[in-house]
Structure formats: C-alpha cells, structure tokens
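User: I'm preparing a small set of examples for a lab meeting where we compare how different chains pack in three dimensions. I only have the primary sequence for this one, and I'd like the structure in token form so I can line it up with the others. Please keep the answer compact; I'll paste it straight into my notes.
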Amino acid sequence: MFLHRLLHEPGVRSLETAPRVNPPVFPALQPFDPSGAYILEAKVRVQEYNNQTVLERGVNELKAFQTQMRGCVDLDLPDRLSLDTRVKYKPPPPPTRTAR
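Assistant: Understood. Below is the structure token output for the 100-residue chain.
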C-alpha cells in the first residue's frame, strides 16, 4: 500500500526553461486537492501472470482488502490508461537570432 497526497507550489509559475535546482521548502507547499484528500494505492505484485491460480489469488487479496476497508476508504479500480505518469518533454525553442 502507498498513501500519498499531491502537493504543489502556490502561485503561477513563470515560463521557466529548466527544472528548479532547489525545490521549495515543505511548509510552503499546498495540497493540489483543496479538500486535502489523500490517495491510497493498493497493489499486488504477481510474478507468474500466466498462471490463472496466482492471478485469482492476487485479485482475491485485493477484494478482501477492499471489503476490510469498506466504510473507511472508498477503493475504486481506476482506468488503467489514466495512470500513465510519463511526462512528454518538449525542449524549449531555440533562441531567435538578431541581425547585426
């Protein structure tokens, strides 16, 4: 299980071309979700994904955890395509040359 909350630096960032070297201090960050909600991520790692018995056992473990947490936490199966966390890098445009 993994419990986390997304935080962000308040204010609008200017068009910076490079990542920050020194991130802001933790107390300066605010929750991305105004309600302050946390995200609980429950996973089961399956070594033999071709073995139907092993897959069923993993699914049953997650269902048992969902039943156990009912009333405390709403556990939903997310859309698998919405979990792509990769960021597509776009290089900054080259500087414009001025005529001499």
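A couple of notes for your slides: The chain has a mean pLDDT of 79. The chain is about 20% helix and 10% strand.

User: Perfect, thanks.
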